[in-house]
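To make this tangible, we now present a fold written out as tokens:
***
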Amino acid sequence: MKLSNDTLSDLPEGIERPRYDRATLTPGIVHIGLGNFHRAHQAWYLHRLMQQGKALDWAIVGAGVRAPDAQMRERLLAQDCLTTLIELDPKGISAEVTGSMIDFVPVEEGNGPLIAQMSDPAIRIVSLTVTEGGYYRDPSDGSFAADHDDIRHDATNPDAPRTAFGAIIAAQKARRAAGTGPFTVQSCDNLQGNGDIARDTVVSLARLSDADLADWIDAKVSFPNAMVDCIVPATGPSEIAKVKELGIDDAAPVTHENFRQWVIQDDFCAGRPPWEEVGATMTDDVHTYESMKLRLLNAGHQVLATPGEILGVETIHGCMEHPLIGPFFRKVLSDEVAPHVDAVPGMSAQDYIDLISTRFANPKIRDTVRRVAFDGASRHPGFLLPTVRDAVQANTPIAGLALVEALWARMCGGTRADGSRIEPNDPNWDALNKVALAAKDNPMAWLEQSQYYGKLASDRRFADAFTAALSDLWDRGCEAVLADYLSRDG
């Protein structure tokens, strides 16, 4: 059965569906970077409110600034922007169709349709999932990358920008001129202080072309920090097959785990839906929640995926079952990361490690190592290296953290333990591969990538641990090195 508004009443028995009249929904949110995660997470929270007859004037309009976004637009518009969510609980599978999204703006060079949509006074929130690496930051220190080609383009072409941030600036400018007031910019990406980073990117870019507008945005626009959490695998043939087994022809279904968390700073300059009524946590202390999640869950993903790729393990679930990788994950996080993670209400760092261990081991979730390992050039500096720097400063154990970084260097060498080729899996793969091969004979060449490691190469304790680990990985192999680490006390 082809998914559409007309067929909602004919969905197979047991499939939850919108109980609200979608024809009466009006837009309040534009979401840029509309992929699987957004539809399984933020759009789901809004759908739950709509199921209660609330937030009917907050419907989502999808948007994007990349070529693949146009393909997603085509698929979703063909099914009235409906999405089948399939929950992969270890105890069984359930599904529902969500309808909180009602349109998707055309994806065009210069972003004219996107700017026009965001300029509409009805839009009060513009949210983003543009990936951790999509905020134009210098990976060595997190500062604004003013010399990036995209930023240079938008600074000289502010009315026909290339980036999502340039489009946001153009829309805020139009709203200021029309006297309709600003919209909130809400980052939903895995970044420490994601709202603060979004603010700095938008204001810094605006300042390159219009200082007065930059000051107005900085003073008037809200950029709430938030922590988001839900494991959402990529959609492939097996996910398409799952939804068809349920009796639904959905060209863009989403599978997800049976867990969600959304912690949001309550700072919205133009109002917001009452997300707390469907399970979101509104707090002024987002930092502690996001630090726990980024340093344990997101960093933990890299701890699993790098050796998993080297040893040819296909899924995160498979890594957790592996006799070396699963214990390696638990030991590094418990011994070397947890001491630098503060507790949140009702949850210690070790409790959180236990929770994510169960989630990662869910056999229903086919989350691929390749997806999780993608863009290590953003994820290692964002998720792992802050803990490395804290451990160096506090003189706490670093052997496992150094080994994780050595595993990343070994993975970027481009071959697995069995000699098979690792296909490029990073926007910076060519440069990383070149340095990784040089580091085979000169391990310090890897740490001397100051755009990632900053001054860590000058710390003798960390540099020695990394050098020994990388040399060992090339000489004796991944399994032997992991086994040695696991045999150590403490």
